[in-house]
Amino acid sequence: MKSETEEMRFPLPTEPEGVIPSLIERFNSRKVSAMMELHDPHSVFVENDGRTLTDRGAIAARFERDLKLGLPLEATVRHVFVADNIAQIVVDWSIDGVGPDGKQIHLAGSACDIVRRGADGYWRYIIDNNQGTAVRESA
Length: 139
Description:
- 24% of the residues lie in helices and 39% in strands.
- It is an alpha+beta fold.
- The protein has one domain (14-128): Nuclear Transport Factor 2, Chain: A, CATH 3.10.450.50.
- Keywords: Isomerase.
- Pfam families: SnoaL_2.
């Protein structure tokens, strides 16, 4: 029988095409630590208003806010473009359902993310831009 720690571990992707399936599994686990493992220690998260988060604590807090909705992430990959150890992933995503407050929630976007293969052979986010080319709100 697997220990609780082993059950919470998710394999890191060894190919860029594995990043989004890993993201979905990690997001739907509701584990911030699982989400953070998929991000390079020097990654950037782009907020909806265009600000960039570089502090790991701030990125984790952002994930915590989304995970507390308790709703599943769905995503469909449009394109994966690879140049050596860097890849761009274009993906349509949504989070839909009734939130903890009983109100209907619909979040969606077309992400344009950049991932990089590390020295360990695993692919991780270096730029997490979940709104892709959307026009940003004023900060």
